[in-house]
Predict the 3D structure of the following.
Amino acid sequence: MKQIKIFHKVIAVNLANILLIVVTGFLAYHSLEQVLTKLRFVEIADGLDSSLLEMRLAEKNFFLYGEKSALSEIHSKINDSIKTIERSRPDIVRAIGEAKTARLESNLENYNRTLQEAGTGNTEAQAKVRSAGRNTMDFMNYITASERAEVNSIIAGSQRGLFFSFVLIVFTAVGVTLLLSVRVLGSLKRIEKAAHLISGGEFEKIEPEKSRDECGMAVSALLTMARELRNHEEQMIEARKLASIGILISGVSHEIGNPLNNISMLAQNFVELYDRMGRHEHIEYVKRIEDETERIQRIVKELLDFARPKKPDFREADINSVVNKSMRLVQNMISVCNIDSKMELKEDLPTVFIDEDQIQGVLINLLTNAIHASSPGDRLRLATRFNPDSARVEVEVEDTGSGISSEILPHIFDPFFTTKGAGGTGLGLFVSYGIIKNHKGEMRVKSEAGVGTCFTIELPACSRLERS
Amino acid sequence: MPGFRVIVIDDEKIVGQMIKVAMEPDGYVVETFLSAEPAFARLREEKFDVVITDLKMKGIDGMDVLRTIKTAYPEVKVIMVTAFASLDSAVEAMKSKVDGFFAKPVKIKELKECIQKLLSPTEPESA
């Protein structure tokens, strides 16, 4: 579906506006021209009018006082007027048209003719003079008045025209601006929504952009970028997995190498020194070999758990009950070590969608680590709460034990990293971290050597998971 | 080789114990440590001939032990033992003038022969 781009729409509307302005300007110019022509005529007409008035006055002198010279005065004035009309004929024709001009001329000529006859003293002819003079005068007054009226109507007309064009231009300009703002803001909202979904990793929820305008293209570009980013992220995760397999393999070779070496050395000495040792020592040696094989077995078992994790069985659960169960399992250890434990569990928490066994394993791992790091009299705090901002349920395991130094803090989630020597496999936190990630959760740690450690697990609250 | 004094540093307790058990009948004096710091303290107190150290340890590791000893006590022989026998670590150890390099599992006989060779007075003194 091909749509007109916003850019083209804006150009089209602006062109229409410019056309409107040009047409309005042309019409206004035309009206002005007309008004000027009419006014020029009115000016000429005024001159003719005053000449006619003088003619009528002379006419009166002739009839009342018999002044013969008056007739030649009228005659010369008529000739002057005809000359004036001839001189300005194009202007006059333009203003009142050919017909009216001709009629004016014929009126004047008629007047002139009657005058010549009036000189003979004929009474009828004299009456004709009066009538021709009045007719000319009346006609002159009529066209002057009608031209004035026309000037007024032209001015009023162009006033209206200008006003309506102005209103139309303002309306289209405001309309286009509003439309543009609504469309651009709407698209920005869609882009913002898409960006939010991308940052949440929920690519599949982004609606494919239907419109092919600039905003639609921006959203599609954003989407493409997000997909590329995800591809890169997946490649990076793969690379990181490979790297962690590398760490894992070197870790395995070291972890298993040590007990193997112990078995080997015990066996070598057992053979070499067999005759010098008593029965008790013989048994002691073999027992220690047995211990070392168990150590290897433990590592292999944990490795297998890690390599072939049981398929998690996600169910809706109450985190507080999981926390309580985990706490009961380590309670004995806490009492033996004389640690002061405290539970701060928030009630009415949203449920979480978890594999209870796995989360319990993680909690026991964190609690055991905390107990191992603590000395008699130290405090252990276990808390749960809901964070409405992230829509996650949080579990905190905090101790006032030995803490973790800043040098080793970045490595605690690495496989085979342990501070417990042969006592730990270094897989506990590594596996726990994987479990929490698998629950779409987060695991954070804050620690200061000599002050204590606080692990926080964040798990998505159920309602949100269900929606997805 | 009576009277020669050996220090073993390894966070695996059994390593030190087994070397001690194997070598003391031959007249060596063997002291074992689970980390480097107490071994350094002991070296400051008394003269030792050989230090056998693990490469990968928490805190001060085998490379640090090698460098420290070669700087402070150049006459002391250092033998490196590791379960983490990568080529890189061996090359680095060679560069730092290690006197012997053993991958775990260690053959105690070979370790003893190496020590005997290192401590044999013929080669260095006849030269």
